[in-house]
Design a protein that fits this description.
Keywords: Cell membrane, Membrane, Peptide transport, Protein transport, Transmembrane, Transmembrane helix, Transport. Its main location: membrane. Belongs to the binding-protein-dependent transport system permease family. By secondary structure, the chain is mainly alpha-helical. The protein is 73% helix and 0% strand. It has one domain: MetI-like (MetI-like fold, Orthogonal Bundle), CATH 1.10.3720.10. The protein contains 13 helices and no strands. Helix 4 runs parallel beside helix 7, helix 4 runs parallel beside helix 8 and helix 6 crosses helix 7.
Length: 303
């Protein structure tokens, strides 16, 4: 009598992969939480997300409501961060501004990560003239400061939050592409890649299944570090009047308005500037923590 294998006793391969991925993510999160600087960055980003999600509950006033009789009032119990030149509550505008900042971070990250990863892996895998052409385009983008190139794109597309996001995304992918290419050049000669070729796997399948997963840790770390620059660039465009337009409570635009009253009403610049500093610093700290967590060699080198 032939024994019937009991498949229910072992998890399916896909489920096992999901479990191992969840365990790996848990290990990374535990490492970040155990590092004081990375833990501080996580707390700041979580606070940003909470502010954006629950802005109507956290804000103490309508961020767009004007009260000329209460203009330029210093911080008090009635207005935690004071009021601006038309009597709007700065604290409430700062809270609602978290939504704009988080939107910029999320959209730029979703656009930049895949583009940089795709360009870098494809260029590194195929090499030759294809690699040369893609890398020369990348070098052209890298030869200009990010803010200057973003200004050029916004000038061509027109001022506005949506165009600012597109401009920032168009100027932020080259460093990720360079990193992904360098990783791919190392990986394309690996034994498991050669074995996949011998089995008849297509180039697209090899890149997607074999190379991209190995590039993800480095790309994720670089993307996290790049988000700090994204925040500063978005604030710079808002400051110059090319990003989010009034009366949207974007932090860079708030600083641009507040600089006119900076000597007498310091809070108009101090609080939005402090928010930009904290969030950009948080992403830098998380990026450093991810680099240590995802690259054991770096962690051993520091010890």
């Amino acid at each position: 009598m032939t024994a019937i294998p009991m498949h229910s006793s072992a998890p399916p391969r896909r489920l096992a992969g999901l479990r191992s991925g969840a365990d790996y993510l848990g290990t990374v999160l535990r490492h970040l939480a155990g590092n004081p600087s990375s833990a501080f960055g996580l707390v700041v980003i979580l606070a940003l997300i909470v502010m954006a999600a629950f802005a109507p509950l956290i804000a103490t006033a309508d961020p767009y409501a004007q009260d000329l009789g209460a203009a330029l009032q210093p911080p008090s119990w009635a207005h935690f961060f004071g009021t601006d030149e038309v009597g709007r509550d700065v604290f409430s505008r700062l809270v609602y501004g978290a939504r704009i900042t988080l939107t910029i971070i999320a959209l730029v990250g979703v656009i930049v990560g895949p583009i940089g990863l795709a360009v870098g892996t494809v260029a590194g895998y195929f090499g030759g003239w294809f690699d040369t052409a893609l890398m020369r385009i990348t070098d052209i983008f890298l030869s200009f400061p990010g803010l200057i190139l973003s200004l050029a794109f916004v000038a061509a597309l027109g001022a506005g939050l949506e165009n600012a996001i597109v401009a920032i995304a168009l100027t932020s992918w080259p460093p990720i592409a360079r990193l992904a290419r360098a990783e791919t050049l190392t990986l394309r000669g690996a034994d498991y890649v050669s074995a996949a070729k011998m089995q008849g796997a297509s180039a697209a399948r090899i890149i997607w299944k074999q190379i991209v997963p190995m590039c993800l840790p480095s790309v994720l770390t670089r993307l996290t570090l790049s988000l700090a620059t994204v925040i500063l660039t978005a604030a710079g465009l808002g400051f110059l009047g090319l990003g989010a337009q009034p009366p949207l409570p974007e932090w860079g635009a708030m600083i641009a308005i507040g600089r006119r009253y900076m000597l007498e009403s310091w809070w108009l610049v101090a609080f939005p500037g402090g928010a930009i500093l904290c969030v950009s610093l948080a992403f830098n700290l998380i990026g450093d923590g991810l680099r240590d967590a995802l690259d054991p060699k770096q962690r051993k080198g520091r010890h």
